[in-house]
Amino acid sequence: MGGQDRSRTVVAATVSRPRRLSIVGESHYQEALLRICGAGAGEMIERECVAELVPEPDNAHDGNAIRVEIEGALVGYIRSQEARRWQRGIIAMRDAGRSSECAARILCNPEEAGHANAGVVLEPSGELEDLIARS
Q: Whole domain around residue 60: which residue ranges?
């Protein structure tokens, strides 16, 4: 009975995910991370928070260093190759009175081998994300 065309075109939408960045050095700041996320023995916790990226041009080990602070506590650093590209831009943002904060997640794993392990993932957006994308 009359061959009706029943085909349809389906358009898939691309959903943009926020850029996620791991940091380094968290193993040296486990006490601060566990205090911030309130993790106890055997608990798996993922806590959303706000991180501030703080340039350290006077850092004795790396003049391009950018430390990561959460609730005023040092919790790690941006990887050196990325910090080298971003530090000037972050300093300019801060000098102009703009924020160098971004969303972050602290991931706390249950105790293994006698100690809990916490890590940080950054989710920059806005001007900070634009700076990173241009670098």
A: 21-134
φ, ψ (nearest 5 deg) of residue 84: -60, -40
Radius of gyration of the chain (CA): 20
In contact, 91 and 39? CB cutoff 8 Å: no
What pTM does this model have? 0.80
Domain count for the chain, please give it. Answer: 1
Reading the block at residue 135, the tokens are 């670098």
Give CA–CA dist 70/41, Å, rounded.
22
Give residue-wise pLDDT tens across range 12-54: 444 444 578 899 999 999 889 988 988 665 667 889 999 999 9
Token digits of residue 97: 């009175």
* CATH number of domain containing 35: 3.30.70
